[in-house]
Amino acid sequence: MIKQSDIFFLLAVSISFALSAYLWFSGQREEGVFTALWVPSILCFGIYFKLMALKGSK
């Protein structure tokens, strides 16, 4: 079951990935790498909050 919060996390990851790819291919490689580091961080926060919600519901 996908909740609205899951969609927000996936949207944030998608935007971050697209922005990093744009920056990389436009020649701003350092900014692209910095922005690409946001992707796993956002995913980790999403997984953490999802696990805490599951733990709280039990």
In whole angstroms, the N-to-C terminal distance is 17 Å
Low-confidence stretches: none
Query: What class would the helix/strand composition place it in?
Result: mainly alpha
Mean pLDDT: 93
Query: What is the 3D shape?
Result: elongated
Q: How would a textbook summarize the main sheet?
A: none
Work out the number of β strands. 0
- What's the gyration radius in Å? 14 Å
Provide the domain count. Answer: 1
**What is the helix tally?**
3
Helix content: over 70%
The ordered string of helix (H) and strand (E) elements is HHH
Tell me what portion of residues adopts beta-strand conformation.
Answer: under 5%
Quick structural gist:
By secondary structure, the protein is mainly α. It has helices spanning 4-25, 29-36, 38-57.
Describe the structure.
By secondary structure, this protein is mainly alpha-helical. The protein is 86% helix and 0% strand. The protein is elongated, with a radius of gyration of 14 Å. The mean pLDDT is 93.
For the structure shown, list the relevant keywords.
58 residues
Give the SSE map:
Layout: H1 4-25, H2 29-36, H3 38-57
Helix pairs in contact: 1-2, 1-3
